[in-house]
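call fold(seq) -> C-alpha cells
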Amino acid sequence: MIEQPLPDLEATRALARRLAFVLRPGDVVGLAGPLGAGKTTLARALIRALAELGGAGPVTDVPSPTFTLVQVYETGAAPVWHFDLYRLARPEDAVELAIEEAFAAAVSLIEWPERLGALMPADWLEVAIERGAGGARRAAIRGHGARGRALEHMLARAAA
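ret:
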C-alpha cells in the first residue's frame, strides 16, 4: 500500500499525472472516501492528464456524474468512463450503465466502488481518500489482483 499525502490541489494533480502515465484501456480505478473527500477532484485531474498525454487538447468541461451516473471522455490516450455510483440502488443496476463494456475497453474511474459489490472486477486499483486538517487530504493506494498490484508498484516507483 502507498500512503500519499495530498496537502493541496497541486499534489492531487501530481498524483493524477502519475496515474495517467501507467493506466491503459481495461484498467479500473476505484475512488473511495466520504462525501467531500476529493474523489471527483482527483477524477477530473486524471481525465485532464490523460487528455494531455493523448494529445486531445485541454479538457475543460468535466462535470460530476452524480446525477447522470456516468460520463464518457475520449482523451486520445484511452477512452475514460467516469462513474459515480453514490445513487446506485443495487449493484446489478450498473450493468445498465454498460459498465462491463467500460471494463473491457476503457479506463474506468469509479467513485463509490464498494457499491458494486461482487461486480467489481478482480483486478483494480483502489485510491481511498481521507480528509485531514486544514483542507489537506491523504490517499491510500492499494492494488487488487495482479494488474492492480502492478499499477501500485509502478506508482511507487514513479513516486520514488
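The beta strands are 2-6, 28-32, 70-74, 79-84, 107-111, 124-131, 137-144.
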